[in-house]
Design goal:
Chain lengths: 344, 509
């Protein structure tokens, strides 16, 4: 074998495989698209209301918070980390927000305070992870308990918004695109959905169009490599956990505005819903690969699972089992597809 | 050669770790347009010196000047800012990203709407082209190219920051001969553009081929700076190890070739052992007291065959006979139970467990064979650890040190100790001497011969034909995932014999 022939074969190989391999990374996300569409078609075919404007509107209006949480969770998971505190941050910010509204404070001030509280927890997680060298799992588990505990200390009652609060408009009818004369069959997106859209655009821009975003992917590939390449890994970690916590507070604003009340137990298990969304959306849990848009799709799949299982007559008590099974099947399917692709 | 002012001057560099003086007043000068090699055994302080220059370690005493300006680095980013770029032995790129992204990470070209990917990839292409890598697609994933090419991509990345100094820390240890030449071509290109290159390699041939100037370290101390051309090899080795070169090169030279007895059964005999895409069905036998060398180029299937013999990969075809009895070796645990051990070529990822101590690393395989309900008595464990650390001369001689803090050569010795502790009949060693210094190499080679002498069967896999020929009784030659020849290693066999065998088989095919 001569010099040139050996290197040539390597290079030819790369150019031949180029298109294929890039697709390989996207396959799990594409699979999420297909599954989502299949779910909608199936729902429509069997139960006849999945293409109704009202259904689509509600899907988005009621789950805007989950879309935001899924985007938030994408950041740490891309680095191979995790943020278990998002659900608890929703709880504490919601409780504090409700208390402030109850005494008639300016709604903008309320929102700002909620975001600052979230940021404080994000910063704390960042300090624990970077300065005390904790695993993100442990650090955010700690902040989760802390946030949930403080929320419970403040109040264990179900708090409702006062009338004329200047806050619940976010969850109102919002942007009405099609005003259907039939009852509850409008195509309308509330401000929460628009906020979620902004969050998605922010997430996409951040991850794909900024150096910080590229550093996030690099850390997911190899933290030590990223550091040796001179990338600001430490600063980026802070940004990641700050971002996910702040987005969690925004999710809290959107959710409470939509529901109109809050309790210290709100958001229990939401971090797991967010993780499920991210994983369904094709982001690899060990980091390095994944897309924000995938997470959005994951959130939509996750949100559609519940009405679908209910429509199939699964008793309410067993819905979580079905959801869990579907996630399992889904992830195995993804694995199989990408493994098959790798072999080729 | 330019005899101008040095671009980097490191003077009196001292670095202390708790309890150890890693460097003691070491000097180093790098000149623009020169390739400078840092020479010394493992543990001599080469890596520490490099890490001082790249800002990974803080220096306790001494000074660093770059381009006439005194500098203090408090991190790798600082060093890169000053124009010091580094390519490490283990490629430090992100395999999850594309080639172009890796080249440009942290230096992406930004437009009004964030990163402009079109321009960024174009710039990446430009840098790759200037390294002679114009036919690499910057959008292809890094994982789609070989380690060797990744190494070259890492150099292209280093040049993005407009480096004045390029440090190459053992870049050749995982490359085959052709790839080394490709690397050297790029190094010459970079050198001729006026960059100072600091090169570390354990291959003396390469040092003499590419370098202009040498700085020799021993035990953390500065020995001498010399011009490569004016320094004979023997003298260089003498300076590095403080012993004469002759003592070392004699290992195995006087080895009495093993004579097989009539009617003797091999320890391991396999027929048609294979795995699709890894190695075609292969026959192989290994007798007690025999060293069988696996020779072949990178990717020839030599590692794959070794892994199949150990069950690290499950064979798809073939029969496996152990001491005349049929057996299925489908996983490492079964192999260990049957006294077959395999030391991986991938020391860092599959070999050592960095955060465990030397002692734990030695005992782990033995404990695994016994199962967790039969712990090794402390006395017995101490005896085993002590015995092998002494026999193999592991330095530092402290079993409670974390193994990740040992030099490569000593890590390799610990791995050898780990497998010897399981008392194997067949020991498969995959690249046991890669990337380690002459002294440790000689010790490991000697250990291999001693083990065979004591009746162990050894499979010795190495990309260095010279040591395969020197140590083996029989040589299995592999090419393109196929065994192409069995060579009985007598006086007529040399490195050329093997090279010829590989080359000839190509023509027939």
């Amino acid at each position: 074998m001569s010099v040139s022939s050996s290197t040539k074969s390597v290079r030819k190989n790369t150019s031949r495989r180029k298109g294929l391999s890039i697709n390989a990374q996207m396959i799990p996300t594409l699979a999420a698209v297909v599954i989502f569409i299949v779910m909608l078609i199936m729902g429509q075919a069997l139960f006849g209301n999945y293409f109704k404007l009202g259904f689509v509107s509600n899907l988005f209006n009621d789950h805007a918070y989950l879309i935001i949480l899924a985007v938030a969770m994408t950041f740490p998971i891309l680095t191979g980390g995790i943020d278990l505190s998002v659900g608890a941050i929703v709880a504490i910010t919601a409780i504090v927000g409700m208390k402030m509204l109850a005494v008639g404070l300016n709604p903008w001030l309320v929102m700002l305070t909620m975001i600052l509280i979230g940021a404080a927890f994000g910063l704390l997680a960042g300090v624990l992870i970077e300065e005390f060298n904790m695993q993100p799992f442990i650090a955010t588990l700690a902040t989760q308990f802390l946030a949930r505990g403080i929320a419970s200390i403040i109040s264990t009652d179900s708090l409702t918004m006062p009338k004329d609060n200047g806050f619940s408009w976010i969850g109102g009818r919002g942007l009405i695109i099609i005003d259907n004369p039939k009852i509850s069959n409008d195509l309308n997106f509330n401000a929460g959905v628009l906020i979620a859209l902004a969050v998605v655009i922010f997430g996409y821009f951040m991850l794909h169009k900024t150096r910080t975003g590229r550093t996030i992917y690099a850390i997911g590939g190899s933290r030590s490599s990223a550091e040796l390449m001179g990338l600001p890994a430490k600063r980026t970690q802070y940004i990641i956990y700050l971002t996910s916590a702040v987005l969690a507070s925004i999710a809290s604003i959107v959710y409470t505005a939509n529901i109109g009340s809050a309790k210290n137990t709100v958001g229990v298990g939401w971090e797991l819903d967010a993780i499920a969304s991210v994983v369904i959306g094709g982001t690899i849990i060990t980091g390095g690969f994944g897309y924000v848009l995938g997470s959005v799709l994951g959130a939509l799949v996750r949100s559609t699972l519940e009405p679908l299982t209910t429509d199939f007559g699964v008793p309410a008590e067993a819905v979580t089992i079905v959801v869990g099974l579907m996630i399992l099947v889904f992830v195995v399917l993804q694995r199989a597809v990408s493994a098959l692709n790798k072999q080729e | 050669m330019t005899a101008t002012e040095p671009i980097v001057v490191m003077k009196g560099i001292t670095i202390e770790f708790p309890g150890v003086k890693a460097l003691d007043g070491v000097d180093l000068r790098l000149f623009p347009g020169e390739v400078h090699a840092l020479m010394g055994e493992n543990g001599a302080g080469k890596s520490t010196m490099i890490k001082a220059l790249t800002g990974v370690y803080k220096i306790n005493a001494g000074s660093i000047t770059v381009a006439g300006k005194p500098v203090t680095f408090s991190g790798t980013a600082d060093a890169q800012q000053a124009g010091v770029a580094t390519v490490y032995q283990e490629v430090n790129l992100c395999t999850n990203l594309s080639i172009g992204e890796n080249v440009m990470l942290g230096h992406e070209i930004r437009g009004p709407f964030g990163i402009d990917w079109r321009k960024t990839h174009k710039e990446a292409q430009k840098h790759l082209s200037s390294m002679g890598l114009s036919d690499l697609d910057p959008r292809a994933p890094l994982s789609s190219i070989s380690i060797a090419m990744q190494q070259l991509v890492a150099i292209a990345r280093a040049m993005v920051i407009d480096a004045k100094v390029l440090i190459l820390d053992e870049p050749t240890s995982s490359l085959d001969a052709n790839e080394v030449q490709e690397l050297f071509a790029i190094m010459r290109k970079v050198r001729d553009s006026g960059v100072a290159i600091l090169f570390v390699s354990h291959f003396l041939d390469q040092i003499y081929e590419i370098t202009d100037r040498l700085t020799i370290l021993r035990n953390g101390q500065f020995i001498k700076e010399v011009m490569t051309k004016e320094t004979p090899r023997a003298e260089l080795i003498g300076m590095m190890i403080g012993k004469s070169a002759e003592e070392l090169s004699q290992i195995g030279a006087k080895k009495s070739r093993r004579v097989s007895k009539e009617g003797e059964k091999p320890i391991v005999q396999v027929k048609g052992l294979g795995h699709k895409g890894k190695i075609q069905p292969t026959d192989e036998q290994i007798y007690a007291g025999e060293v069988v060398g696996f020779a072949g180029l990178l990717g020839s299937g030599r590692t794959e065959l070794g892994r199949l013999l150990f069950g690290a990969d499950k064979p798809e075809t073939g029969e496996y006979e152990l001491n005349g009895k049929k057996i299925a070796i489908n996983d490492p645990h079964t192999a260990l139970k049957n006294r077959i051990a395999y030391s991986t070529e991938n020391r860092r990822d599959e070999g050592i467990i960095g955060d465990l101590t030397v002692r734990q690393n030695i005992l782990i395989a033995l404990q695994a064979t016994r199962g967790m309900f039969r712990p090794i008595a402390k006395k017995e464990a101490d005896a085993i650890v002590d015995k092998y650390m002494k026999e193999l001369n592991v330095r530092p001689a402290d079993p409670d040190k974390l193994i990740k803090n040992l030099s490569g050569g000593n890590q390799q010795k610990v791995l050898l100790a780990r497998w010897l502790a399981t008392n194997p009949e067949l020991l498969i060693l995959d690249e046991p001497t890669r990337g380690i210094d002459i002294g440790a190499k000689a010790e490991i080679q000697q250990a291999v011969l001693d083990l065979a002498q004591q009746g162990m069967g050894v499979v010795f896999i190495s990309s260095e034909l010279e040591e395969v020929v020197r140590l083996s009784d029989n040589i299995t030659v592999l090419k393109d995932h196929k065994k192409i020849a069995d060579i009985v290693n007598d006086e007529t066999v040399s490195q050329e014999t093997i090279v010829d065998t590989i080359a000839r088989s190509g023509k027939e095919a």
